Batch of 4 targets.
Target 1
Amino acid sequence: MTKRRVHYVLSTHWDREWYQAFQHFRYRLVQLLDEVIDGLEDGRLKGPFTTDGQTIMLEDYLEVRPEREDLVRQLLREGKLVAGPWYVMPDEFLVSGESLVRNLRMGRDLVRQMGGTPSDAGFGCDLFGHNSQLPQILKGFGIEAAFIWRGVNYNATRNFIWRGADGSEIPCYRFGHIGYSTYAGDVRHAFELHFVFDAEQAAADLEAFLQKQLEETEVRPVLLFDGGDHQAWDQDVYGVLLERMAQEDEEIEIVHGTLDAYMEELLDEVERIEGLVEGELREPGRDPEPADSQWLIPGVLSSRVGIKQANAACQALLCHWAEPLSAMASDLVGAEYPQGFLNVAWRWLLKNHPHDSICGCSIDQVHRDMRFRFSQCRQIGERLRIEACRGLAANVEGEVADDEMRVTVFNPLPVAHEGVATLTLEIPEEWSTFDEFFGFEPKPAFRIYDAEGEEIAYQRMEQAMGQIKKRLNPVRFPESYRTDDVTVSLPLDVPALGYTTLTVRAPEDDAFTRHPSAVGLTTTERSMENEHLAVVVEANGTLTVHDKENDETYRRLLTFESCADIGDGWFHGQAVNDEAYLSTGSPAEVALVENGSMLSSLRVRTRMQVPAEFDFSDMRRADEMATLSLDSLITLRKGADWIEVETTVDNVVKDHRLRVLFPSGSGAQSYLADSPYDVVERPIALRSDRHLYRELEVETKPQQHWTAVHDAQRGLAVVSDGLLETAVRDLPQRPIALTLLRATGRTVMTDGEPDGQLQGRHTFRYWLLPLGERVNRTRLCYLGQRLAAGLYTAQLQPEDMALHRDEGDLPSSASYLALEGRAVVTSVRQVDGALEVRMFNPLEEEIEAELTLDASYDRVQRVNLESAPVEEVQPLVGDHLAVTLGGKEIATLRFS
């Protein structure tokens, strides 16, 4: 028999920012890499050195050491430095599936740009659980194995097979009892702060560790991973390892290698691996230490909620607006596709995705720095949206007269927007106004006409007079002008990933503009009703909703709950002496905000008296009470079967978790929630043996946009934007609990900091949708996208048309790309001059979908997540394409 090969891999787990801010960590990174590179150059370090599965370490290093770029490139080419596949090491549940794909693409592309070959090892050593589609995502990049630790308690051997949502299987290496730091702890004694190196002791420790790994590994290749948190190259222990490598051994051969080399041997031995795990990996830590020390760390789903909201907004801006609308403008009006700007925007965004950044579990300064990065991404995305939409709008056929304004309304989703839309129109200040009665308030006068020239009756909602705007001319100084901004609601259908054009015109003869009276949706001073739903605000501010279609009534919706939180960014800390306060006993004020035939809105102001903070000296909520003000705008639109809620919280309370509860009245035993490229089903009841676990299982679990629970008669879905933690409580009414915020003062390695208490105003958006016996997973996914993306208008006066018009031959209403069927589109963008469309199947069974594309492409090809072909090129006949997707399959189509 041949010898068993033992692969020693030298790395360091590099949190870019965490208990120190980025620049402090980078100072240490530069020192570490200086030492590693010097060792590789002079031969003291045989190499290779692995950069923690991420490439940004090299980017950060070379920004300080640009004179060493040629040397770094050489070491990458020679394989002495190994980087990738990630750009940064992300969290898998707090970012979108598209963000995970772009992260891998950017990391791998950067290595290639520097002359190296990116690692194909699916490294995820410290991520707080793993989503159900990661096996398929990794295989979409040609990555055939994963290296993981948290979220799974499988420790019978070091290897198991992980089967993802679609059935994709990859072999995994599961790190040992201290995870990726096991070698650092057992051999280097890195956790023993005053340990003095002794060569004989080190040799004995290495031998014991080696034998343990041989015993625990059922396949022939063995991995010795030396890469603890921020651990520099330990030259003393490394010298002992080199001596052991030089010894003759009949059974093993120790090589200084890479994860890829280990993986290559592992793939030849897959049939020897007996263990199998399936789906998402979110098991809490089970075994007592020191047998195992993995912690799932579930509280990061709701830490520092503003970070999550900003990230969701940036993801929606890039994936739903900047990329697809820029592709549309490129195809239809010949605009340059702004790939360079998009690369920069994604780079800013991905720098906020490391798991100690996006998770909200770092010191205050780290999360303050993140705001700047989000701002840079947002500025680029907004400018790209403006340019693409304005260029398309200016080139719609027809002229704009002096007393007219063109308003082109864009829908970024591949399904049509139907129903009532709310738009804010920027009416020229010089247009006439009219007064009611004795001139108490001037109102801008205007009429609205659709793409066919038919007048549309609208509901006037708000106005802000004399707002300053600016017009930029490339050869003139900026022009300032004023508009009267009027918010209106009107019936409007906008084609799938397309636009429709409205003409807003000053009235010709009379100065006022009114429409025939119509009965509003408000039925009493605290209720409203449309074709599908009847909503009543109760005296305590909760909602009673009657679902007319299914003849079911839901009560106590919009109940707020404040309980103590003595935790930190990692965990919601449950106090023994807790008192949970509920808004069911609180007074509420109701104000009628809108009452029209298009929509009605009621403002509900709930004021809860809750403990002002947690008294840590007495370990109970304080006796001092504070008023928690909750202002919820409840909106019901004509034709909608969901209720819109926007809640603003003036948080003056510390050390608490705030949730909003929605009793579903369902008898379900499980519920659904969306996840990156998936919809997962989870049991409502927690595991019966959770009391035996070292880390308690908690009821809160992740979502991307929505959670739904239902039985054969009734159910409820909650769709939200940037709120990633929900629970379906194991109570008779099966309430959905949506976490709004967690206010905590503890931060890692500090005496406590203020920012995590989230004092001040916070606004949250979520929709409530009663369900029947079935859940339309696809529709809920698109409702989540619709809430996140909304509509956008390009508004052009004659002066703007002169600046931006080119051919002017686009139709007044058009769809660029439409999808029929049950697939969910997540990306539409140009890649190397071709159009790529990515979608996934949220169901377990095979589905059919049909794409309709209004562009001049005549070929189509399936490609992987890195744009490499996986099928032959097929001719595209006409503008329709039928697509078959297997259960939970992710598919990328390339049109050329």
Note: The longest strand covers residues 459-471.
Target 2
Amino acid sequence: MLKDLRYGLRSLIKHPTFTAVCIVTLALGIGANTAIFTVVNAVVLRPLPFQDAEQLAMIWTTRDTNQEQPLSFADYNDLKNQAKSFSAVGAASPLWNFTLTIGGEEAEPLQGMYLSASLLELLRVSPERGRNFTAEEDRIGGTPVAIISHSLWQRRFGGDENIVGKSIALSGVNSTVIGVMPADFQLLEPAAEVWVPLAQNQLAASARQVRLLSAVGRLNDDLKPAAANSELSAIASQWAGQYPESNSGVGMRVVPLHQQIVGRVRPALWLLLGAVGLVLLIACANIVNLMLVRSASRQREIAVRAALGAGRVRLLRQLLTESITLSLLGGGAGVLLGSWGVQALLALNPIPLPRYNQIRLDLTVLAFTLAASVITGIVFGLAPAWQTLKFDLHTALKEGGRAAIADASQRRLSSMLVIAETAMAMVLLIGAGLLLKSFAHLLDVKPGFVTENVLTMQVGLPNTSYSEPQKRAAFLKQLETNLAAAPEVASVGAVTRLPLMSALNNITTFLTIEGREVPAAERPEIDFRRATTGYFQTMGIPLLNGRLVTEQDVANNTGAVVINEALAKRFWPNEDPIGKRISTATSNGQQTQWQTIVGVVGSVRHLGLDVAPRPEIYYHTNTNPPFGPVVVIRTTGDPQRVISIARAKVRELDRSVAISNVNTMEQLVAQSVAQRRFGMFLVGIFAALALVLAVVGIYGVVSYSVAQRTNEIGVRMALGASTTDVLKMVLRNGMTLALIGVGVGLAGAFAVTRLMVAMLFDVKPTDLATFATVSVGLILVALLACYVPARRAMKVDPLVALRYE
């Protein structure tokens, strides 16, 4: 084996161009696979970093469309006592905005979560410093405590060894730090940097209609999710009878925690892994063709070795050793490219990927790369080696014998490889084309607001100093006035939640229409927001009918509200909704007083550009001023230039108020489509690489065919064939392979693209325009690849060719 290895290395060094081309081609294919597999391994394949993680499951409520929804505090408290399928149940709030103040320093915005004391226990995770919450702390009125992340401990506290026991102010509440989580800890929301006992949330005493908790349970030993679902269905039915106002028509189900965390990105990652797998196969096909050309020229060498006593098994081992050596060299270069690719993916990280802090090259990835390299070496080495060993010893040893000319079986193999390359490139190009067209349609969607020259920022009002609603309303009013006075500002408004936020953070209520009595279970669920009068003008949301709600309406308790066009069309399709009266459920489960619709505004795609607008109602912010309103500012110029002005205006009013999530609306729109853009970008890169490799393969086969048929072409031309006849002959041979490959690729794409349905928007997976465009484009590129060697064939001198013969 060592002799084979030394000989193989000498042979590769002797042909540096061939070796370099093969190594670069393999490095690109294996490197891309290494990078994507590193992500897939960390995010999808690796078990969750919790003890007995397979027993962990998310618990959701379901309603109407069977879409998963959070639980309310009341539902969670009942579930803990009634569900027997779980050894423990815990819960967490959505990502929450906090302000951190230490001493007299300026407030810093933080994102965190409220966790039940049982959650970390059932996950069997402990802080690396300090302790977990106690049941006494996890109750309404409990001692204010907090657990911080390792990154916050290092960043804000400089890794203070005595951090446990120190006091910090979270949103104005003095809390004691009781623990620091491990550096690699992530749960549901990777951006969280602080955790507070769940019962201390301001909505802990709210009604069952207010659903915002993500519940996690640890299944009993050997209990399957299906059995837990049966029990949860029975509990949900019991609740529907006990609490018809809030739980009628509401079900429950479990989802394995691993599936919940990675389910959203799993299809995209598998698609990318499949795409890079095709790229590697195309690269292998190219190298097989290169080695077939090289093997034809080595038949005399192999014949001499056979004449000296080498058996065919011995020769096969030698040739496979050379191909595997070449593949391992390409794999080594691929590991380097793959590590750079992983760093690039993490730097972009627009999705954002769950468990991203665990994405790194490890032994599993290196084993995958090694296996891919060895298998690749065998795949692209076996066929050429077998072809090389199919020789006639007498003919191969004859001086001047034409042993270097490929036989019919070798030409058939090369042709089949070109067809396969073209077909695989076709599948990738069609996939990329569908994603590109889908993304273009998504960008053409009218969101319902104007994105240009709009700056947004969230202000966090401390709970203690702004506990009274009048103070929150006064602060927001004064801030709007101060900002509007700046010459760079055209208008100002505020809202509780901006468009394009996550569906899990959406807040809904149940609608009752005066004069339309319906059972509680059939009351329609609608979205609602609170906004100032200036919000609609600032966001460019048109007023279609009536007027907007003013501060005077709230002061006089007129009950005036504004609805969107989607709600108006659904419930008053053929009449004017102005003056109609409605009622909604409050946070304590009661119905509000009758509210009068005074205006209709345009519908906004709040949950995403790919999600149709939902029926929605707008209250004025003064009806219940928020602690964390989002201020929107329409500027007269570049919004980035107004950021410093906005920060200064907030500090002038109160330095304890934190500013966070400063973005332009254009940035928020871009972030909302980042996952689709990223997937399209990567698949597009892989498709382009596949196209280049396929074209090179077509060019190589046609060029080699021309070189092998030089004498034949000379004879044809000597017998009267014109240059046009030669051109047609070469193009016909090359384009026949390309057209067959396109046909096979079309059939494959019709089957494969159906798996992309969830990734497409307003585009069918069998979109004929995309299929036709890609087909024509690939055929034209293949024609160009055939034309270059065909031009060379036209220049063959018959005398030179015949003299050579």
Note: Confidence is low (pLDDT under 50) at residues 399-406.
Target 3
Amino acid sequence: MSQETIIKNNQSEDFIRIQDLGYLFLSKWYWFIGSVVVALTIAALYIAVTPPIYTRTAALLVKDTSKGGSSSANAMNEFADLGIFQSNTNINNELLALKSPTLMKEVVARLNLNTSYTIQTGLRTKELYKASPVWVTVLNAADTPLEFDIEMLADNQFKLSGFKTNGEESKESLQGVYGDSIQTPAGTLILTPTPAYSKESEGNSVYFSQASIEQVSDHYNKGLRAELSDEKSTVISLSINDVSPKRAEDLLSMLIKVYNESWIQDKNQIAVSTSQFISDRLDVIEGELGNVDENISNYKSRNLLPDVQAASSMYMAQSTENKKRLMDLNNQLSMAQYIRRHMSNNESKSVLLPSNSGIANANIESQISEYNTLLLQRNNLQANSSEKNPLVVDMTQSLNAMWVAITRSIDNLVLTLNTQIKNTQSVEIETTQQIASNPKQAKYLLSVERQQKVKEELYLYLLQKREENELSQAFTAYNTRVITPARGSDFPTAPRRSNIFLVALAIGLLLPAVIIFLIENMNVTVRGKKDLDVLTIPYVGEIPLVGKKKKFIPGKTDPEEATKGLAPVITSNNHDYVNEAFRVIRTNIDFMLDHNTSNHVIMLTSFNPGSGKTFITMNLAVSMALKGQKVAMIDLDMRKASLSRYIDRPSTGASSYLGGLTNSIQDIMVKGTIHPNLDIIPVGVIPPNPAELLLNDRFPELLEKLRKEYDYIFIDCPPTDIVADSSIIGRYVDMTLFIIRAGLLDRQMLPEAERMYQNKKYKNMSVILNGTVYEQGRYGYRRYGYSYGYHSYGYYGNSKN
């Protein structure tokens, strides 16, 4: 495997250790403090703006009507033959019924919950449920969404503004007197003061809003929670959240009330239908009975007939029994025929059938009761869903089948009754023929009186059933009992300040941590010595960042400005971490150079502008001069001339010598301005053809002359691969110091540096890491574990920097 492949693999396996990540977080402690302060401030503003939410709950016991035990249940048992009370409660159905949109819409309408009165208190709005100083009556468009401001003025007056109707705003402003109707863009309104109105209310504003009852009911229906308190119980727990605790209590109480009323109304539908049927029959029979009585009276008066029954007592006994039999059969036949006529109309399928009508057929009575019960269930389910609901369709089919079965049963009953009547009448004819001695008038009277008694008994029977039906309605009790009325804590359930502040604190700590983590992982530049460990290039040392860390931006940052006004940081008596870093590099260079030769030429280059070549060249040369070596520096970056700025860029320099304008090195040399042992050859006038000047014979001639006079010659070169100057200069030097700037060089360029070393593009190529960050007495990126501090050796206390 090649060294370049190893470098790329190591770069792809780069990761952050928890310990190093902790060091990064500590170095950015101010980020965390600022983030926490901002997060807590936002949380405090949210709490100040958000109105408190209160929770109110109620517990409702749904009675199991399949079990007895109550006084009302005992009373129902006494009238069980009516077939009206035979129904069991399904708790799951009641849960769905309590959340019915129809019930909630009735609750909203009764409590007028579609209107709202609010005032602004600080940063939040306050709901004035039943505490508003004014009351608004909308004479038209009572269900139209509208909003406006009410400003209460003195002298029993008010001002309306900010109208918004169906989303359309109006800037019109109106003024009126309480109690008078006023025409507004929202319709005709009447404003009246409430008991909460006082002199202190004058000058204040109330915001009125009205929404659609449908929308408000949907809102509360979504917020209503109805659930069983326990799987084995029939106790339903109701709860709802609202900004007004009183409104939440009223809503739950009214919901229970409306639910009970709806349940009673539903259960009494059979009894009401039966009562109407009995009343209609009583009216008909009463008229018929009156006609029969009048007929008998007129006939006896006209014919002066006495009581003829005593004359034929022997035969009358048998006749009486026949009459009783015929009367009973006629009653049943009359009831059966009435119900059959009632069922002959298809429109009757949507209404309940008469129950407990007196038909002496238990099977038919049971079928009618089951049909009425299923019809009620189908109507309830259809009201809460639609006709296309599969359950509704199934119930409708079952009802049609039951309707056909009941019709056939009644037809069979009518046929049977007619047969029995004919048989009984035949026996009666034979009996009456035995009364040959009775006058025709007696026979007529007997026939009429028979009809009279039939109708009279039928009338009394229906009267009795009507009273029983009324009693059944009186004994219909609520199927629920309120265990716990609507109540709740006076402390709001939302927003929870402690939870919000904890979440804000967590976000405040987490957000900068995530940002730092992402920035660090997205950083593709060289960050420290660990990134260079994959290189086989000799490592000379590292230079910590001097002063405030600045980011070099190619094309925007001027390298000349980086050296403007600067002086070398290396001094003889300074032992701070920067001076010690240069002394370490000086020692390593001496160790790496060939000591069999002298007068070494060292060039400094890099990949990027702004890598710190000029800074390192100057201070490294000064450090060599401090140990008594004769040192010369040549500024051959003939396009920027950054090194020349240390000596104010004289007009005569290396370009003058290389261009043949002078043959004397002394004419281009600036001696001892920075240190007595340090001389500098500036660029001079920036030439238009630096590469051509370096290619002529005068450049190696210049180096040979300098080798004779100086122990070390340092050359500040332009970046490699940008121009050809570095490659030309590298032919004549003894050592190449390649500068890598931390935070500037892309790690993807490290394989290129390794390739130059392996191909021996530069002689004795070595690496210096520049710009490592100094943190709390240590420099370098902590995450790589190679940071160390010179203060640990006792030098840091002597720093003069």
Note: The two ends are 47 Å apart (CA to CA).
Target 4
Amino acid sequence: MKRRKFFKSSALLTGGFLTAQIPLIAGPFELSEFPHFVFPSDKKLDPKWVESLYKREKPTIYLKTKNELRYIGMPVGGICCGTLYLGGDGRLWLWDIFNQNTLGILPKVLPIKLEGFNVKEINNTHGTLYLKPATEDISPIQQGFALKIKYNGDEIIKRLHQDDWNEIIFEGTYPVATITYIDKKMPLQIKLKAFSPFIPGDAYNSGLPATVQSISIKNASKEDISVDVVGWLENKMLLYSAKQKSGWTRENKILNSEFCNGITLECTNDNKELSNAPDYGNMAFSTLVKNAVCAPDLSNSGNQLKPINEFIKLSENSPVAAITTSHHLKPGQSETADFIISWYTPNVSFPDSPPNQGMTVEDANFHYYTKNFPDAAAVAGYIAGKFTSLRDQTFLWHRNWYESTLPWWFLERTFLNISTLATSTTHRFESGRFYAWEGAGCCHGTCTHVYQYAQAMSRIFPELERDERERVDLGIGFDDATGMIRIRGEKTGPSIDGQAGTVLRIYREYLMSKDGLILKNNWDKIKKAVEFIMLQDKNKDGMLDTPMENTLDALWSGEISWLVGLCIAGVRAGQVMAEEMDDSAFSSRCLEFIEKGRKNMEGSLFNGEYFIHRPDPAEGKKGVGSYNTCHIDQVYGQAWAWQVGLGRVLDKEKTMSALKALWKYNYMPDVGPYIKAHPGGRFYALAGEGGMVMNTNPKMDDKPYGEAKAWQIGYFSECMSGFEHQVAAHMMAEGMIEESLILTRSIHDRYHAYKRNPFNEIECSDHYARAMASYGTFISVCGFTYHGPRGEIGFAPRINPENFKAPFTAAEGWGSYSQQRNEKEFSSKIIVQYGQLKLNEITVDLDIKQAAKNVQVFHNYKAGSCSFEQIGTKCVIRLKDTALIEKGNFLSVKVS
């Protein structure tokens, strides 16, 4: 009550969400504790709340009775196939599958002036859908399911809709959602599981334009019960073009397939232009239930489906297809009806936007799935024919990810951002090229300085990242003369952080490959890309000093710690790759740059507490910059180095000091006082919410961000989750476990379903790609290292290492790792659940006082020969013979 009293009475905190669903976590504070509107260094966090962050607990659930369903929109289509949302009560909504590529999932403008950005109103780049989230009522297509229940002589109709149930429980553990429907008077247990095939390492089967709805019914009574499951789907092909063009009709037909029953939803036209329209195509609504009754048009369905028509607005131009499955359940019996909704809208379209400028027709004409399927019916037939395998592998990954000792909430938040791939933010063209916006409809070209933060796709779908590096970064977007990697592919210029980050990504993709060919086949170009970085150091002190565009959208002059450090890390990756290629001359050149840059960065850009931006002597502070402020990315290069096992590139003591300064000055359990005192930023965190702001000015410098009246200064008082996830990953890697968890949980709570869509982290539009940096925190908590070509893997868990279990992914497969340890012994097991894993070396963290005396290795139950070396607490175990661990097999280690 004391904390609540303070927050309510503070005039600085306006618009906060003080709800029972999201606990108050800090305080109480007095206004006198906010000197210069900087949050106190003592965060006064509730110890019980902090303690709860470590606990395993249970999946996050959202309830109808707590008004937590309205904003939920979990992407449930295949990757790179548009956006289809699953609502909190099981209805599908949004339906952004028609190639509109609008700015944001739902274009919205609010009449709010944003200081510094020189606008009278704000749109989705400024956070309109953070302020006023879209709701599940937004659906251009009528779709749903209902149950016709015959029990005790009565017939009851209940839709899978929140209005028809006492309680609905939504559990959104991406990529599978489970929804439970509860009616206290109904002796039935009803569940809906929704997903699209999602199999790490298999981008093909994870990129199907379809969603699966599996409805399970169990008779919990002592009497027989008959239940019909009725589903419907409206034909809205040519959704937008139909309003502008004539000469078209919509028609539904019975689907003929060996593996499923259903209906196709088609459009025919006399106007050839419509065949090229972005919303041209077809859909299919089908079921695996063999005795299902299919009605192509509800208006002609007769009396059997007449009660369902009460929920549907029938139209002459939009026939509604319906499928009925019938189930007679004895007491205790349960049955499941599986439905597939697939779509086929082949024509890629980027209206009035840069992707049309310079991109070849061959590259951006059709979606990738058109290479393998002629229509939506074929997609449905393919899924139905392989349904058991696709479902089981999806559910296997789901179990593999969540059956961990790590906290449920942490597993949810660090993984769910990969659902960005299943939205209209991302595309895959017929040629196989991956192409993406930064956020839905905003900023084209798979921008290097944004996507280099994202760690998820490379670990889950490494084949897509490898192709992007070779096809675009070292191909279409590569300048052979200079080694420049263009920021957005075709016809664009350089970005220094994008360049350095992409060199690091090339090294990461090399590590996540089985054979290392990406390095061997492209070494000359990779070398040039590294040289490009080093050539931006004009005064040859190892520190970047060439003004060049960066992710904060301005050309900064001077020597900037976060860019200098990132370039050092990029050149370090180049040095290691040179060693792998036996290019000793280039390795030596890189090493000279690294050592000089590190020495000068630590000597010249460290102000005794954190790393800064030193102005150019000639320019001074004329331009925008971070100068003597505490900037969120100041040691980002070291963060990157941990992600790919490069070790230290910056001094440990100074790096830790910088991270502690970020925690002290930039993390705030409530950003309200700060953003009120520093207006002009966009709306990605509000009063009453915790987060880490981009920049603070602890030294109270005059003109801390320069003399220019630049709109980009607005960025500095924002909370952008992609940057926050990067810091959280770094803190976890450096042992600042509590701070990392608190920061990650603050983001998780900002996206609580009571307030907004948990699956849509927003920054300059919806489903922003930088948020996929959250996977990096998972990498750090596992202490995961991997070198595919050499067959090396390592783990050093940060949370509960005495009894730890977590998933892992590798070049050719995935599975789980577990370990138990105490002062006398250590044991671990690697189980492969999909594909295979080649191993020559395993590194584990013993963290015991005694030295390892004996190491045993077992492949399945057969003992193998090995040698071992202990380096500090790390034990490096080298196998005498390469172990190829196949699906269902394991390798275990025992150390005494």
Note: Residues 235 and 318 are 5 Å apart (CA to CA).
